[in-house]
Amino acid sequence: MSSVLLSISGHDRPGIVRDVAEAMLHLQANIEDSSMTALRGRFTMMLIVSLPEDAGLGELKAALAELEQRTRLTVQSQVIPDEEMAAEALDPDYVITVHGADRVGIVHAVTDALAAMGVSVVDLSTRAHSSDDGDVYMMALEVNSGGRGEAIQPTMQRVAEKMGVDIDVHELDDGVM
Amino acid sequence: MNKILTHPDERLRQICEPVELFDASLASLFTQLDQTMRAGPGGVGIAAPQIGLLQRMIVVDCRESRRPCKNNGLLYMVNPKVEMFEGEGLGREGCLSVPDWVGMVPRARQVCVSYQDLSGQQQELEASGFEARVIQHEIDHLNGVLFIDRVVSTQGLVRRLAE
């Protein structure tokens, strides 16, 4: 069974997910994990789909070409190795939120410091927002500390001072309730 | 040991009735709740509706939580009510009644809770951090609310920051 990552985007309108899901249904391909969101006026989708045993990549390519033609979506596909498909995404144990005046380099400063610590980003969203007080930048990261959680708060404090932004670090407790 | 009701069981969505009778059967119900909570790994709290008992009763015990935290020990709380919320923090929650799902939930960092003990005496306590989270999660159950109603995504967090 082949697993394929589809990266799809298009001018936002109702029915994009339906159109993609319909194309997958015709192939009898299963949508496994996915992440889809509207970024400004563009709808963006990343999905991992599994092809049925008897379907080849050729069939998928043909179906995707037809989808692009018909819907004006931009579609890219890439085969995912079994080893990646079998792996679970890391569990986040910290959430970091960043908030401040917009300027170039905020994402780099934060993620550079995290990477240097060996902290892995599991999920990240950003938004630039215009308000009466100027342009505001917001970012939320879910990270896996790899056991180096203690160092995150002081490191982020230094980044916050250097970049002139507010950074909050939340440790995520786990429990069954 | 009782069977745990799981989402989407309708009974998890009911508003539970206040307990009015403080007798020996109340203690025995708490024993059942306590045992059910401890039957699985990582259990730190349980609410009566999770075993189909639509009464305002919760058990909280953070002494054995995976990460050690400040706590008030084993708590059997009847008719609990949060009198004061303070601060906000994020944590990951899982629920016996929503198996195989964890989510990031914002909760007050500190709470002041009034409740009655097994003999009907009015009590009050302050809880913070993880224990405050567990208490809020369990009291939600008494009002038919599940943590999945309160989950925020990272996208949702950014949106909250923007507000």
- How far the N terminus sits from the C terminus of chain A, by CA atoms, comes to 38 Å
Strand content of chain A: 35-45%
Radius of gyration of chain A: 20 Å
Number of alpha- plus pi-helical segments of chain B = 3
Specify the biggest β-sheet of chain B: 5 strands, antiparallel
**Uncertain residue ranges of chain B:** none
Number of domain modules of chain A: 2
- The quaternary organization reads as heterodimer
Helix content of chain B: 10-25%
Q: In angstroms, what is the radius of gyration of chain B?
A: 15 Å
Pair with the most extensive interface? A-B, 24 and 37 residues
SS-derived structural category of chain B:
alpha+beta
Main sheet of chain A, how many strands, which sense, barrel? 4 strands, antiparallel
Strand segment count of chain A: 8
How is this structure best described in words?
The complex is a heterodimer of chains A (177) and B (163). Chain A has helices at residues 16-27, 57-71, 82-86, 106-117, 152-163; strands spanning 3-11, 30-39, 42-50, 74-80, 94-101, 120-131, 134-144, 165-171. Chain A is an alpha+beta fold. Chain A has two domains: 3-86, Alpha-Beta Plaits (2-Layer Sandwich); 94-171, Alpha-Beta Plaits (2-Layer Sandwich), CATH 3.30.70.260. In chain A, the strands form two sheets. A four-stranded antiparallel sheet of chain A has the order 2-3-1-4. A four-stranded antiparallel sheet of chain A has the order 6-7-5-8, covered by helices on one side. In chain A, helix 1 packs antiparallel against helix 2 and helix 4 (106-117) packs antiparallel against helix 5 (152-163). The radius of gyration of chain A is 20 Å and the shape is globular. The mean pLDDT of chain A is 94. With 163 residues, chain B is of the alpha+beta class. Chain B has a single domain (10-159), classed as Peptide Deformylase. In chain B, 24% of the residues lie in helices and 32% in strands. Chain B has three helices and seven strands, in the order αβββββββαα. Chain B has helices at 24-39, 129-142, 154-162; strands at residues 45-47, 57-61, 74-86, 89-95, 98-107, 110-116, 122-128. In chain B, strand 4 (89-95) and strand 5 (98-107) form a beta hairpin. The A-B interface holds A 37, 92, 95, 97, 99, 123-127, 129, 136, 138-142, 170, 172-177 and B 40-46, 62, 65-67, 69, 89-96, 102, 104, 129-130, 133-134, 137-138, 147, 153-155, 157-159, 161-162.
